[in-house]
Amino acid sequence: MPKNNQNKYAEVYSVLTNITDESLQQLKPNEQPIAKRQPLNMYVKESTVEKRWQAIDCEQAKQQLLDQSAVDSMALYQKNIENFIGTVKLPVGVAGPLRVNGLFAQDDYFVPLATTEAALVASYNRGALLISEAGGCSAMLLNEGVCRTPGFAFDTLIQAGQFVAWATTQIDTFTEITESTSNHLTLKDLKINIEGNHVYLIFDYLTGDASGQNMVTIATNAVLEYITEHSPTKAKYSFLDANLSGDKKATMQSLNGVRGKKVTAEVHISAELVKKRLHTTPERMADFWRMSSVGGVLSGSVGVQGHYANGLAALYIACGQDAACVAESAVGVTRMELNDDGSLYASVTLPNLMVGTVGGGTGLPSQQANLQLLGLAGNGHARALAEVCAGLCLAGELSMIGAFCAGHFAKAHRKLAR
């Protein structure tokens, strides 16, 4: 191996060249019978939970996870969990008040954040109070839509083209089929992507106040069944989603379009207020933004932002959202510039906020309580929740960038993560 490559892969090279026969034996499949098995019944039932714990055989863990509160409330989790063994308790802090002047969110919000990371709530709280003291952030929901992208494989490009020609005549039928699966779903658009003899149908939906992922899955599956039965050009094989949707991942497609709800928020903050609350200047914060934007480009990040995932993950967990959607939701662009009068202009744009106020985990007791705390529980509030999310991310960006500019970032973590 060339010397420069050997240095580059020194650690891996060392491991691989020192594997013993005994280590190789450890890597082989273990075909011994499985000694412990949990019940096949995945539903929440007290007797089944007890049998599951008998298989796990860890009394210390059981005492913590299956306390009396978990036993009393287990029936409530029937539609939200399989192989239930108990509950996890997370501390919840509140940031705010965060003043949002939006198209749908118009209030001073106390934002619940469930996290175990010290300094997180303190940082978002500082940013929220700064925004509120500056008169609040303006927030605007720009677009919304959730897609599923079934894929079809054919023998030839000609067959793929014939299939597309037929599919474009079926849009009214597709609309009728999809919208019959839910009273809250609307087929917004159908786009088509051809790659050789593969065809991707991009079904784009509106899902009301639900995040909508299960809703669009069921609707698209109904169309897929119709296509399989009625298409004059038969696919060799097809799949319900062929990974063009951007589900649970950061994509350039979603950054330039929308997945969930696209929201932008901005705030103007005077130099005096920046100095008073963040102990730095608008000029230095704009400097940081320019340098960190280049850093984001050099790293190949999808969008340029500091830490949307921190606030969104904590809010999603607290409010019964799908926490895995942070992978796509925490994508966007932060911008900080110096205004002509010396004040700071700051904005965030998030095109992939997957949030809802009904369905999923939003109806569970603690999660429902946190949505009620926000005043955004139930029907009619999903768009407002998305605007609050944008305001929260703006608060986090201001606080973190302010800490870097003032040299307080490490100090704050030393003090609070004790």
From TrEMBL:
Keyword Flavoprotein: no
UniProt keyword annotations, A-Z: NADP, Oxidoreductase
Enzyme Commission number(s) of this protein: 1.1.1.34
Transmembrane segments: none
UniProt keyword NADP, yes or no: yes
Matches recorded under InterPro entries: HMG_CoA_Rdtase, HMG_CoA_Rdtase_cat_sf, HMG_CoA_Rdtase_CS, HMG_CoA_Rdtase_eu_arc, HMG_CoA_Rdtase_NAD(P)-bd_sf, HMG_CoA_Rdtase_sub-bd_dom_sf
UniProt family annotation: Belongs to the HMG-CoA reductase family.
Protein's recorded name: hydroxymethylglutaryl-CoA reductase (NADPH)
Source organism (scientific name): Thalassotalea psychrophila
